[in-house]
Structure formats: C-alpha cells, structure tokens
Amino acid sequence: MRYIPITQADKAAMLRDIGVSSTQELFAANIPADVRLNRPLNLPPALSEMEILATMSDLTRQNVTLADYTCFLGAGAYDHYIPAAVDAFVRRGEFLTAYTPYQPEISQGVLQVIYEYQSLVCELTGMDLSNASMYDGGSAMAEAAGMVVQQTGRKKVVVASSVHPNWRRVVKTYMHGIGVEVIEAPLVNCELDLNKLETLVTDEVAGVIVQMPNFLGHIEQVRTIEKMAHAKGALFVVAADPISLAVLEAPGNYGADIVVMEGQSLGNAVSYGGPWLGIIATRDKFSRRIPGRIVGATLDNRGQRAFVLTLQTREQHIRREKATSNICSNQALNALAATVYMTLVGKEGLREVANLSLQKAHYAATQIQKLPGYKIACKSSFFKEFTINCPKPAEEINRMLLQKGILGGYASSPDYPLLPNAMTIAVTEKRTKAQIDQLVAALGEVK
Amino acid sequence: MRYIPITQADKAAMLRDIGVSSTQELFAANIPADVRLNRPLNLPPALSEMEILATMSDLTRQNVTLADYTCFLGAGAYDHYIPAAVDAFVRRGEFLTAYTPYQPEISQGVLQVIYEYQSLVCELTGMDLSNASMYDGGSAMAEAAGMVVQQTGRKKVVVASSVHPNWRRVVKTYMHGIGVEVIEAPLVNCELDLNKLETLVTDEVAGVIVQMPNFLGHIEQVRTIEKMAHAKGALFVVAADPISLAVLEAPGNYGADIVVMEGQSLGNAVSYGGPWLGIIATRDKFSRRIPGRIVGATLDNRGQRAFVLTLQTREQHIRREKATSNICSNQALNALAATVYMTLVGKEGLREVANLSLQKAHYAATQIQKLPGYKIACKSSFFKEFTINCPKPAEEINRMLLQKGILGGYASSPDYPLLPNAMTIAVTEKRTKAQIDQLVAALGEVK
Amino acid sequence: MSTLALIFEKSTPGKRAVTFPACDVPEVDPSAVIPAELLRQKPAELPEVSEIEAVRHFTQLSRRNHGVDVDFYPLGSCTMKYNPKVNEEAARLPGIALAHPQQPVETVQGNLKLLHTLEGWLCEVTGMDRMTFQPAAGAHGELTGILIIKAYHESRKDTDRRKVIVPDSAHGTNPATAAMAGFDVVSIPSKHDGSVDLDALRAVVGPDTAALMMTNPSTLGIFDPHVKDVAEIVHAAGGLVYYDGANMNAIMGYARPGDMGFDVVHLNLHKTFSTPHGGGGPGSGPVGVKQFLAPFLPVPVVELAGDKYLLDWERPLSIGKMMGFYGNFGVVARAFAYTLAYGPELKEVSEYAVLNANYIQAHLRKYYDLAVDRYCMHECVISAKTLKHEVGVKTLDIAKRLLDEGIHPPTIYFPMIVEEAMMIEPTETEDKATLDRFIASMVQIYKEAKEDPERVKSAPHLTVVGRLDEALAARKPNLRFKKDL
Amino acid sequence: MSTLALIFEKSTPGKRAVTFPACDVPEVDPSAVIPAELLRQKPAELPEVSEIEAVRHFTQLSRRNHGVDVDFYPLGSCTMKYNPKVNEEAARLPGIALAHPQQPVETVQGNLKLLHTLEGWLCEVTGMDRMTFQPAAGAHGELTGILIIKAYHESRKDTDRRKVIVPDSAHGTNPATAAMAGFDVVSIPSKHDGSVDLDALRAVVGPDTAALMMTNPSTLGIFDPHVKDVAEIVHAAGGLVYYDGANMNAIMGYARPGDMGFDVVHLNLHKTFSTPHGGGGPGSGPVGVKQFLAPFLPVPVVELAGDKYLLDWERPLSIGKMMGFYGNFGVVARAFAYTLAYGPELKEVSEYAVLNANYIQAHLRKYYDLAVDRYCMHECVISAKTLKHEVGVKTLDIAKRLLDEGIHPPTIYFPMIVEEAMMIEPTETEDKATLDRFIASMVQIYKEAKEDPERVKSAPHLTVVGRLDEALAARKPNLRFKKDL
Ligand SMILES: Cc1ncc(COP(=O)(O)O)c(C=O)c1O
Ligand SMILES: Cc1ncc(COP(=O)(O)O)c(C=O)c1O
Fold it and tell me: What is the mean pLDDT of residues B157-182?
C-alpha cells in the first residue's frame, strides 16, 4: 500500500457514505462472478522504496554503459552531450506530472514549451509547421508514409535501402496495414543507386523516403532525388539527423515535403532505445494531414497572447476513424528536453556540436584508413558517421574492443551483405582525440 | 565567459551610459596601481561544461563509494536510506537558489519549511525551540558550550571523552578562543566513569556535555549525569543521534538544557563530510541565547498566518559584537532535506528506521561475538553502533575487508588506546542479513 | 506580467549558454568534405540566450502549469495518479539511462532481464501469455494489437475479415486505430451504461468481422456484465477480441482480460503503472496476447535461453516493427519499479481506485446528474445536463470555475454518448481530504451556478490567463514563431 | 488559498509515505537491550502523510518562493549570481556524494586531490600560500582566521594583544567573530565612502592590537585606496590583518589580498564561486593564510606526498578543528566545477560584475541619492533619504514595491552608516535587459512615490501574503507547531 493514502478510518467513513459495507460489494456489483479472479496475483512480494532501488541497481549494474565505455556506436542512437540544465527541467513536477494541456488556462507552461518546440523544429528543418511530437523517428517516418499515401491517393511508397533498417521495418508494418506496397530502392556502395531509383519512382508512387545522412553515415543526392520524386507527382520525405542540420542544408531548402527526425540527440538519453522523440514537420499545405497535437497562439478574454491546442479536427478524439492518425499520448517530455537543449546550445552551440562531430569523425576515418586491412567502404561524403570494411567481421572486432573498454561501431554487414566486414562508426563531439587514437590503436591490433 | 550574458554590443552601450570608454577605467578609478595584479591568473584554461563533468567524474571515479561497497562505517556519518523525493525538493530552483528569507512576502516557502523544521526538531528532542540550523553537529556542540558559558558565567565545561573525538576538538577550539577550560571526563570501558565525573563537575563548571549514544555506540547513564550536572548548577548538554530518538528517550524528557545533533542521517548524503546539518534545540528560557536564525509565525496585513524571521536582536547583523554568535549563512538546504525526510518517513517510518538499525546492529554484534578472537568491548547497551575488540588492529582488518567490497568499521583504538584492536561498527536499516553475514564471514577469516 | 515572452523574443545575437571545447583534432574545412550545394546556407535561428535566461524561462514556464505534483488532477480516463519519485531515480540508473540500444546482448543482460521479468508479471496481471513493450503509448498498442490480429487472419488466409467493431462509447483512438490498420470501422451503439449491446453486436458480427475492440470497464466507468458473452459472440463468428486496458486501474487482481476470453490487450503504463504523463507523454502501451498470437508479435522478442537473455529477430510471422528499438524503455523501467512496490497488492490499487470514485459519485449525485445510476468502477461520469437546462451553466463553465480552486477539471464532453459529461477519475492515490475538497468545490460551484451563474460562466478568474479564443486559433493558425525580417 | 496548512495540520494517524522492509534478522525486544528508563515513552509527533501529500506540500511551498532561478535577485553583499546546473550534477557524482568521511585515505584519493588542487587555485586567486576548506560559511571562516591569528600571537607569547579593530562599515559578522574569539572589539569610524580612516586607525593601533578586519571592497562597494597603508600600519604595530573576502567578486584577477599585505583571507564560495545559497545555506568559507600562519590551520591538512594525498593531523600548533570533518565538501566540489569553467577568465567575472553595478548606479543616481559619488566596484549603494524627506516613502517601502515586479529587492538598511541604504549587487550573470527592467522598475517606483505615495507605502500588493507584523512575531514568539492536546 505504498501510494494509497486512505486510512482504515477514512475507508470506513467513505463506505458509509457510499452505503456499502465493504469495497467487495462495489466489485461484486460490477464484475460477474464468472470472470472474477479468485486467487491472489502471483507476483513477488511488495518491496519498500529502498529495496526497489537496490534491486534495480543490482539488476542493471551488469550492463555495459556509456558512463564507463567509450562509445563509437551510433546506428540510430548517439552519444551527444546533454547539458545538465536539461534534466533539471525534465524533473520539474509541473512538467513531469502534467498531461496533455486540455485546460489551457492552467497549462500555459506546457503549451508555450510546445509552441517553442514547434518553432525550433521549423527553424531547424526549414519547414512551415511541426506537431507537438511523435513516438520516435521510426514511427514518425511511418506516419509520414501514411500522409503521402493519403495526400496522393497512391498505393506505393519507395524507401531507400539506406534508411535505418528498423525504420524501414516500421514503415512496412504500418503500410501493410493499409495495403500499401513498400519498394526498397537499392544502393551502390553506401548511397542510393540513382539510376535504379529513377526506374522505381513511377507515377504510382506516393512518396520517396530517404535518410540524410543515411544509415551508413553517408550523404545522399537529395537534390536529384527531390526532382525525381516531384517529377512523378510523388512527395519527398526526408529523415534527417537534427544535429547535422547545423552543417547540412535544411531539407526545406531542397524541396522536402515532409521531414522526420529522431530527436534523441537533442538532449535525450540513449536509455536503451527510448523514450525518445519523433519529430515531424511539413508544409503549410499539409497542415490538415499532419498527425498529432499542435499548439497555436491565440488571445485570451483579457487580450493577452496565450497558447492552446488547435486544429484538433484532425485528431482521433474528434474525428475518430477519419482522423489523420490514432496518436493520442505523444513524447511531450522529450520535446521539452529538446526545447531546453536547443535553447541552451543555441544557434552557435548547435554549429559547434555539429562541427566537432564532423571533425572528429573525419579524423577517425583518416586514421583508420591508414591501418592495413581497413578501408572506408564508400567514397561519398559523410557527416559524423561512416562505414569501413574491416579485416574481420565487425562483431568479432567489437568483442575485442569491448575488452578494452570501447563500444565499437555497428556491424552493418548483416543489413548490407554487399559490404563485407562492414562497421559503421559514429563519432560525436564527446569523443576526444585520445579516445579516437585509442580506438585506432585497438583496431590496428586486429590481425 | 560561461555565465556572463553581456554581449559586446551591450557592453559598449553600458560603458557609454556610465560615461567611460572601458571597464579598465572603472578599475583604475578604484584599485591603486601598487596592488594591481599585472599578469593573468595562473589557472588551467577554462573548460566547457562537458569537459568539467568528464574531468570531475574521472577525478572522483577512483574513490571507493557507498554505491559499490557495503558500509559498516559510522563514527559520525551514517549510511541511512535517503528517500528519492528528498532530492527532488533539494533540486527545486526556488529552494536551491534563494537566500535567507529577508523578504518574507516572497519567501513564504523557505520560511514555512524552516518553521516546520523547527517544529520537527522540537518534537524529536522534546525541547521547546530550535533554530533554523547550524553548520554541523560538531560546531553546534561548540556553540552549545558557548551558550552554557554565557548563561552561567562560569569558565569551565566538562565534555565526556566518549563524545566524538572531532567534536571534542571543535569544542576545544571554540572554547580556547574565549578562554574556557575544557575538561575531558574519562571512561570505564565504553561509558563515562560516573565516579570520576562526579569529582569533575564542580560548581565552577558551566555545563556537562555528553553524547548519546556515545561515539563508541553505547548508552550513557544520562539520568544520573543530569542530576550531577544540575546539582552543581551546571547545564546539561546532550548530543543525540536523531534516528535514535525514535527508540531512545527524548533528551527533553531527561532534563537536557540544550540538545545538539548531527542531522546528516535525516536525508543528507554522506558527501565526504558535508554539507550536513547542525541541529540545536533548547528550552524557552534560553530563547535569547540561542544562536542563528529563527522563524516565527505571525499575521500579515490581510490577517493571514504567515512566517517571518524573528528574535533577530540576538543576531550579528543587529547586535554585532554583542550577538549570541557570528553565524550568518547556515545549512538551510540541509534543513529542508531533513524536513522532507522526516515528513516522508513520518512518525512510524522513523521508528522503523531506528528499530531496523537496532535489530541489525544487535544481530551483527551477536554473530561477531561468536567468532573466535572477537568480543564486544563493553557490556553496556548500544543502539546501532557498537565497539568490538579484534584479533588484529582494525586498520589491518579493514584493508582485508576492502578487498571483499566491505567498508569496515571505525578503527577506534587510536582515539581510545585503552580499548585494544577496537573497531566501532555501525549497522543501519540498509544493511541486509546477507551483507551482515558476509561481514561476519570475512571477519572470521582473519587469523 | 502575465504574458511570458517567447525564448526567441529573449534572444540577443552573440549570447551563449552551453559551449563546447575547442577542436582537438586536425580540422578539415566542411566545404572540402561536404558538397557545396548540400551545405547549410543560413543557420537555423535557434535562440541565443545565456544559461540564466534559459533557466529562468523554463522555471517561469513551469510555474504557469498544473501537474499531479501541484494538486488534484481527476482527469477521467487518464489515471492521473501519483508518480513516485523513486521511479525517476530508477530510470536514471546508469544501466538504464546510459545503455545504447545497439549494444551486443551480452552487454545488456540486465535490461533484457528487466523486460522479460516485467513481461511475465504483466501477463499475470492481465491473464495473457506473451507481451511486447514496443508500443510507445496506448494508441500505439492498439495499432500493434490490431495489426497482430490482421496478421493472424492473413496467416490463415482468412482475408475477408475487413471489419472491426467498435462501440460508440469507445475512446477515439479505437476507431482511429482500426482505420489506420486498414479496416472498416463498424460502430455499434452502446447501451446507456456504456456496455456492449449484445443484440446490436449480434446484428453486425459475421464472416467479415476481424475483431471487436472493447474498453472494459467502459468509458462510463462500468464493468460490462456480459463481457464474456461479447468475446464468445465474436469468437463464434471467427473474429478476435481486443481489450483496451486503459482502465485496468479498476480491476487489477479482481479480473483479467485473458480470463474474460480476450485475445489481445494493451495496458497504459503511464496510467495504471504510475509513469508520469510528462505534459502529454511519453507513455508506454505494452500489448499482451494469447499464445496462439505470439508468433505475430513485433520483433525482436526477448527470450531466455538457458541463463542468457537474447533478442529473437527470427520470427517470420511477426508484424515487423512498431518503433525503432524496444519501446519507451525508460518508461517501462519506471513501471517495473512500480510493480516491485506492490507485488500482489496491486489489487489494493484497484480496490481504492474504485472506493474513491464511488465516494465522489455518492456525494455529487445529489447535485449533478449521473450517467449511470449504479456503483461505478474507477471513475464516475456525471453530467451538468439539468443545470444547463435550468440556469445555462454548462460543463465547460464548471470546469473553468474549478480552475480557480487550483483543481484540474475532470475530462469533459467525453464519453460523447453522455450529454454535458464530466468524467471523474480520482485514482487511489488521493486521500479523503482531497476528495472532500473537490466535492465541496463542485457543490459550491453548483450553488454558485444557481445564485450567480454569470460568475461561473465567466470563469476562470484567478488563473494567469483567462478563457482563450480557440476559434481564433483555428481560424488564423499561428503555429510557430517567425522572426520579422 | 493563501495560507498553506502546515504539514502537521495535514497529518492523519496511520498515513504513510516511505516505508521500510520487514526485519530480516532475528529480532530482539528493544526493552531487552535498552534500559527501560531510557526507552522513548511517547513517540515524536512527526507528521503522518502520504507521499503525494508530502510532494504537493513542498511543491506548493516552493512555488511561494523567489530564487535566482525565478528572477533577478540583486541582494547586495550576497552575490546572488547564477548557480550553474552542471555544478549540481558534479556534486552528485558518486565519488563525491557517496564517499564517507571516515574512509581510509587510500580510498578517497580523488577527493583529496580535488581539495588540494582547489586549494592551489584559490591561493593563486587570493595571493595566499595555504588554504583550509573547513569553514562552513563566511562567518565561520572569519572565526577560523581570527583564531589562527590568536594562536599565532600565543605561539609568540605575545598575549597582550586583546583587541581586534573593526571599521563600523563592516558586516556584523566581523565584530561578532572577534568577540566570539575572545577579543575586545574596537570599532573605528569609516570614512563616508566606507574606506578605513587612517587617522582613526593610527589612533587605536598599538601593542594590544591583535588584528584588524577589513572588508575590501568595502560594504559601500568601494575599493579602499589606502589598503596597503592599512596593512602596513597594523603590521607596524605588530598586529595581523584579516581580509573579509566576501566581496572578492569585484577584484578577481585584478588584485589579490595577499599582494595587499594581508595575512589571512576568507572567501565565500557561495557568493563568488557560484554555489547556491539554498534558502540560507550551506555555504563554504575557506580561509587562506600566508606561509607563516600555515602551522595554525585547522587539522587535518591535505598534503601531497609523492603521488599520494594524505590527511596531516600532526600539526601541534593547529587551532584544532572548526567542524566535524573537512568542511562542506559538496559545496567545495561545486566551486571546483565553477573554477574549471573559468580558469584565468575569472577576471572577466569581476570585470562584468563591476560593469553591471556601475551601469545601475549611472541610471539610478538620477533619482536616488548615492552613498558615494564615484565609480563603484561590484555593487552600488544608493539611498532613499531625499525621497523619504520629501514624500515619506522609505527604503522599506521601495523594497516592498519591488516585490510586485517579481524582483527581489536589494539589501536594505545596510551598511548602517548610510541612511536609508539600498545595496545593489547585480552580479555579472545578469544581462542588460534584466538590468534595464530593474532600473525601469526603480524609476517607476520613484515616480509613483511622488505621485501616489500611499500606493508604495502599502506595497506589496501582488504577493501571496502582505506585509507582516514583525512586532507581533517578536512579542509573542510562535516558533513551532504544537498539537493541541
Ligand atoms: C480508454 C482509452 N483508450 C486508449 C487511450 C489511448 O492511450 P494513449 O494516449 O496512451 O495513446 C486512452 C487515453 O487517453 C484511453 O483513455
Ligand atoms: C561582507 C560580508 N562578510 C561576511 C559575511 C558572512 O558570510 P556568511 O553568511 O557566509 O557567514 C557576509 C555575508 O553576507 C558578508 O556580506
């Protein structure tokens, strides 16, 4: 009875007011006997707070963590620095324990944060509008696929094979539901094969989905792809790395119709895969198609600027089966973290993070390139992540690196069998030259 | 320039308004040339936030901590459980970044917390009033010594040798300043020698200071000592362990004139010795002698109950050299932690903490007692800490325990040479039977 | 004072909060490694503020917000229970917060064990056989579950089942989910107590029925007396039954969807299992299934092989993936902590949730209309219908007036089948004194509505902003700040 | 709504928040192991509340409080600068928060190195040779320093030095400290600018002079032009000079007490080095000394021997101990983090602190009286003397009216030598916009005082409580809650 504040005396008084002699009566009045559970739940006995923490810390102590290991693992989750002030606000009870701001008069805090978040996303992507958040990058991409299908009425989407394998799976899972065919466009080396792509993008295709930089870390010819897509009336969906957008052009400036992003890098802990932040942004013309909550500015009856949930007629609680999506709860607290993050690093800080990541990744690539038996898998440009071919399977090398306190890169050959012994290495601003040199030295020891 | 938000443009405008061309002029107008520092400070270059955390975590990672080692070390600092909600409030910016509540209208939060803290301390100790906090237990004891001297006009204080050695040092340091003689009353075994004490407590003695339970963990004959002190017109000062007061009688109920305590156990991390919480409580009749801030209830001009700093004519900012003490900043945030702690554990929880500590300490003592070569140093009663004689010097045994992930007890022979190979062992509610059994097994391996 | 400038409006060129170290590796010119036409031309206009400004901004914003930590929040259907602080610490343990989802399984055995263990526990609570934690929220769980049902029918080549039956008292996510999974939604009228009208159901089930989605207790807070019949009717027609477990807080330890014959169920960990709502999320919507549906669960599935946990990706019948990795793991970890706190006493959670709701209902029925005149489960639905007819004071007005009391209003105008509905879910974490204060406020507002209706209709009076012009917001959408050029 | 019940008033018998495990060892009856007359008879009446009540209580209380995180806090002499959030994380690193002070030195090398390193850095900042971190606050540092001086004279058998000279502009802790250390306090009048009157000083120094305590910049925010002469005059008489470094924020990198000839200095880490004030504390008041005083420092002293740090307790001349262990270590750790953040750029801290104070002074001098008409250092002292004479509006009224603006007032009525003083210390962490808002508020209040003095005199109007009856509080002290019996 850890969090139940009703005393036995209170309970008795309450039962009296209700007019029953026990809570049993309330349940008996409701739950038919034939579905009642007539035994106690078979769960381990209740623990006190002190035991809970001890149990969970014992349980998770065996995990390798980024606190103790040097991380060169990316592949969808990045060890970027999270400023201390981010968590200070994530912990504030007023943000943490509120729900969707249905009552705007007592929710201006959350509402203004979301409005600022939407604005920041628009700035970053060069798009016109953003919603209040999606579950994660993968499901945001799937929702974007749904949007292009709804918008065009077509029943095929083309997804680059260089998109995160898990995200492609999510897209396929969602699209299967509504009977949409997902066509995977093949690669040459680490990039989309533009010739093959051209043949795949027909006028039956609702949208073309690419990731930039792609899963292998490399840059796609987005300006060319945009033209291919739009030439056939397909929409152009870009999955971007938010950090990269301090260095790489905003998708809004090369014709993206929808931008989706995983916002983990923006102040959210890796946390074994979640909770993170799905970002989706689009053009004004698709404002009635975008899923999820949106906050808008308005006036109150005292003439003050204030914020409120708006355009709700897209949503499930009004439109039910005709809604743009079923999303209800989202990732607002992670959007808060991203808002605080972007505020703290600011215009110049984001550039610093991006540039440092770029510099260190390129340094690492250059050094690894020099090692016998290793080579950069592809010639094309990359940002903070790149793929190398190793003298042995990456899984094997990673086991050796682990011994040295290093979490090596992602073993990408299983997903990209054409790239032998491939390892995709991510380098963020947190990695020092010394750490990179250690990695290189350790790789050099592989024979 | 990490926390300086003046841009160069702002600076220029501000200098213009001030009427100078550079900040250099402002300094030149103030600081004579002959004391000016004409070189840069010789400090390591500024680090970014990310580097600060990395540096400090590398630096302190080498420490053994209570997170990884099983702690049987007490001797003034105790590994009691700190409920998670305590830190949630210590982190609240409104508590963390406020100062002494000089402006009560915008400080009702801090003021009410202190009022509640004072009330809790009175409840715990059975005394009439408490101040808003002292630096720590040791300095609180020294201030209490000063109080008894001021009150009686006598120039000697008797301190039990069973008081924490460091606290005795603090008392002596403070008393030396005002020319008061500190007489240490000797022990038999682990307790005050009452016969000798009786001879020491003359009518020149301002006060008798004991610790209960004492530094070795044992219980003093406080009722007898109280009579001895009062019989000679000396005041009776008791240093109590706040946790023990759920099991042991409140000092207010056996005639203490002043109670001092170290409040670390009440929700404050061990933190290598501080910041902790000095608690001082006394009788109404000494209310004009107690040092430090005090909060009282009053009414505002709208007729509402509200809180305010009061009885300030005792304090240095009004009375200057005639003040009861020079204390200004105190340990308010630690008092907040203690207030939240006592609220969370509540009446029954404190009893549980105390009882579990008592039970586990007694279990440990019983088990150790059974080991060849070990014995409990004293027959007298103890609460959560007790002293044993070991087959070898405690320092040596502790080195062995450390290898097994155990932080052994305090090596008390250096402070109490009459107790050979003594180790004072503390057992809190956090220790499990399994951990105690491990300790016992490890001790048993000593040959 | 009441309008707080946007962080963009506080921006000044050149100001910095967090900075980063100088580059310690030989630098390349970005334009030498990135094609010129893909280099960003104009930097994103992120705010430029100092750290103190950022801290004050978000501190002040938070002070303009209500939360469970601030005061009562009886938002029906949302289970705004207390969010234990210890769970926040648990989720920040390095093993949890700082584990990378792509780590080799040998290096995350603790987390896999956590998932596997909690799966077992929640299967016990729901009466299901297997469970996935991949869904990020309730609606996401619904979609997962319905896609599993779809995959099941497909695996049997039973592909004419294009319809999902949803009672009209259901939460909006139910029909929206069915549509998103490509099904036609068949809405059936509920009985006035929110329970399934068996005749209406019998009339629509058939060989085209893929599934029925049912919320039980219903959104009216009533346990469906014929829940087993519902399952049987649908099963008899070859369809599967989906249990929206968002209201699980009513029945833990008393009844289990699995025992009621349901094939799929989702839980809302951010409701029943106390994880914080975060201003809208993150949540977690794990989906439990009976054994025959286990092959269809999203990949990967955590399995125990000997004494090692592994991630099983080789599941040919799987629906695929619903999220990038394994769901909102940090949220799941909080629910794990919560389950540890109760064990079998989870039953008491439901006991007191139901007690509290009935207590409120017993008192407010004297002033307001009841949607259903019987003992409720974990929430009660009342209505201001009579009051509206008598004095023109609507549910919305009552809600706004409650704001002046520092209390978050109930869910209003839902379920839609109840006129002027107020759906009150106190949860088990509220004490009698708080319930009494709420009841007193509701009674006081009732009286005020009769004596001085304008005062209620013009509420709120004491909040930092007054009623908002929502029509303006929708008519002239202003959805982002944009710097004047 | 405005009165918040005490936690005791919310207590209900039987309610629990945090509970503890059942006992896992064989139990003894406490009365079998503790003498009956020492067993507690009546339990302490701690509150009995649930966790949610506790959380709401303290959340609501915090919302009734101002802090640097909320808004501007120019409380003179207190250096209410921004408290970096990263320092809070640093202080919670396990190696810092979870190290036990009685651990063997081999197991706390990291912490000893931290202390030793910061000692070196702060010696560099102050121009001293050794430093102790044992004092818990400024006043505690003063006492430490004055006791060191006493021990020094005693060690030389120079025991007639019974007087400590303290200018009347000094902070109250200075004379109180001298008295606490057993000295007679000789107060000398300051010059109108707060600096030491050399003639007055010469008149009192002599063979009975133990020390002079000096605050520089003075509490009027002015650097003493004759600071070196002051030290020399006292030294010539055989006394030592103590430097109250509470105002160090004005001069870092520009001047050092050691170079001015001072023997002892204390710093306030909770001012200059950005550690949070916590509603009154904890602070940290390290004391730096010249080499010849090092033997008198409190034990233990951290020393580096080879590559190992150790605690040196064997210091026969030491004054002893000022605190149980090594001071407020967690606070020191925050200051360590802060020093890492700036390095030699600490000089800019002072540069901007001085700039900000002068900017305020330059604007407010048009409306208020200046205590000293010259450029100030890190704070400026203005006065409402004229306003009071003209319209009866006092400094107190102005302070209260500022509350309505959400701004914490300056320190008022201090230094005592200035009539109707307002001591304004903006610190370097405030931006121009904030200073401008403060200036505008002060100007507005000035105008209002002239136009509608009653409005100012009856302030505050917008705070949760109005002006308090302080006389009542002192006359009928109510210092604790006591349950009615
Ligand atoms: C009955 C019911 N079902 C489903 C949902 C959807 O859950 P979520 O918001 O987590 O997507 C809700 C949430 O409010 C609900 O109340
Ligand atoms: C000039 C001066 N000296 C000494 C002190 C005392 O410092 P503390 O409050 O830390 O004891 C203060 C504090 O306000 C001060 O301003």
Answer: 98
